[in-house]
Amino acid sequence: MTLLLSLTGKKTILSFIFLCAKFAIGFSQDPPKIYVANKAIDDLTIDGKPDEASWEKAAWSDLFIDIEGKRKPSYDTRMKMTWDDQNLYLYAQLSEPHIWANLKERDTIIFYNNDFEIFIDPDGDTHNYYEFEMNALNTIWDLFLSKPYRNQGKILGGWDFKGLKSAVHIQGTLNDASDVDKGWSVEVAIPWSFDTEPGGKTKIPKNEYWRINFSRVNWNFGLLDKRYSRKKDKAGNFLPEYNWVWSPQGVINMHEPERWGYVYFSEDTGGLANFSIPRDEHIKWYLYEQYRKIRSDKNKPHVHRQSVISPAIIFGHKISAIVEEHISGWNIWVKSPFTNSILVIENDGKFKSH
Fold first, then answer.
1. How many CB atoms lie within 10 A of CB 296?
2. What is the pLDDT of residue 20?
3. Whose C-alpha in 47, 135, 169, 269 is 20 to 30 A from the C-alpha of 186?
4. For the chain, percent helix, then strand, then coil, each to nearest 5?
5. Rounded Cα distance, 323 and 145, in Å
6. How high is the mean pLDDT of the chain?
7. Which residues pair with 238 in a beta bridge?
8. Nearest by Cα to 65 from 246, 242, 189, 194
C-alpha cells in the first residue's frame, strides 16, 4: 500500500466531503472487546495448567471468533489474564482433535504451524508494538514492530521478551495421528520490564488499559508417512490458514492495532472493575476509519490544503475531522468535545493526543 502524498509531485491528500457522506451519523467499526485482568492473589507456576487460585478467580474471555467477526471457528479458543508486580500472565485453552507441531528453532516463522499469538500496544498509538507466537512444542517467536506493515515499519525478529516464561500442556498426544486429542493449553508470564521507558523505569499499568489482541492460527493438515504437515491443494499450493481472534479485526489483518481489544489491569483481586472505554477512544475509531479510507482511495483528486471530512455523531456530539496538508506530510485531526484534547493521526498512522 502506498502513501497518498508525494511531496515531490506536489500532490495533496483527498477530501472525503462527498465520498464519506454515508458516515454522517456514525461509522462502521464494532466496538473492540474488553477484558478486565484482576491482580493475582498467589504465586503462579508456569506449567501450562491453571491450578492456582488466581486462575480459578480470573474470568474467561468470550470464545474466539473468525478474524473478520463473521464465522464461528471449527474449534473453541478462550483465554484468561492476571498480573502481579512482576509479570503479565496469560492462560489460553485451544480445543484441537489433532495436535501437531514441527518447528523447534526460536524466532522461526511459528505461524507455519498451528499457533497462539499475543499482540501488545501499551500506549495505543499503533507504533512500537510487540508480537508473540508459540506452537504446541513451546517454540517461541517474539518480535518488535516499529510501525504496522502498511506504514513500512521496521521489524526486529531477533528482539526478545527478556525473562519470559512459557509452557504448553497437551491433552492428548503430540504428533500422533492415530488418536483424537482434546486440545492444548498455553501459559505465559511476560515481565513488565519489556516495556521499560527511557531511563530504565518500568511502568506497571495499574488501573489503566492497554490495547491487546490474541490470535490463533489453524491449518488444515495432511499426512505423509503418518507425519502431519500443512495441507496442499491439487496444484501443490498450501491451503490458506484460519485466523481466530479474541477481538474481531473486521479485516484479515492483525496488524491494524487500532482495532485491537482493551485490557484493563485492575488492582482488585476479585470481581470485575467498572471499566468502560473512554469516549475519546470512540473518536479515534472514527479517525482511523477515515485514515484508512484516505490511504486506500484510488482517485486521489487534488484538494485544498485543509478539508473537513463528513462528520460522525458520537455520544450525541457531531464530530468533524479535518484533513490537513503540511510541510512534512499530512494528518487528520479533531478537537474532542469530551476532553478538549486535540486528537491527531499523522500520515504514518501514529496517533497523538495534545
1. 10
2. 34
3. 269
4. 10, 35, 55
5. 27
6. 89
7. 232
8. 246
Please state the pTM of the whole predicted model. Answer: 0.89
In 10 A of CB 150, how many CB atoms? 18
Residues in Cβ contact with 127 at an 8 Å cutoff, skipping those fewer than 6 apart: 146, 147, 151, 153, 348, 349, 350
Among 233, 254, 263, 246, residue whose Cα is nearest residue 73: 246
Domains of the chain: 21-28+278-353 (no CATH), 34-266 (2.60.40.1190)
Separation between Cα atoms, residue 296 and residue 213, nearest integer Å: 24
| DSSP H helix total and E strand total for the chain | 2, 22
Residue type, 12: T
Q: What is the pLDDT of residues 16-32, one digit of tens each?
A: 322 332 333 344 568 99
Confirm if 55 and 41 have CB atoms less than 8 A apart: no
Q: Report the distance separating Cα 230 and Cα 126, nearest Å.
A: 32
Phi, psi of 220 (to 5 degrees): -65, 145
Dig out the grid coordinates for 60 from the structure. 474467561
Residue 315's φ and ψ, nearest 5 degrees, are 50, 45
Task: Work out whether strand 183-191 and strand 87-95 pair parallel, antiparallel, or are unpaired.
Answer: antiparallel
C-alpha grid cell for residue 181?
486429542
Query: Chain centroid to CA 280: how far?
Result: 19
In contact, 273 and 36? CB cutoff 8 Å: yes
Task: Say which DSSP state 158 is in.
Answer: T
136-186 residue pLDDT tens: 999 999 999 999 999 999 999 999 999 999 999 999 999 999 999 999 999
The CA distance from 279 to 336, in Å, is: 9
d(CA 317, CA 338): 9
Cα gap 83→39, rounded to integer Å: 5
**What one-character DSSP code corresponds to residue 175?**
T
The three grid cell numbers given for residue 175, joined into one nine-digit string: 504428533
Cell readout for 107 is 524466532
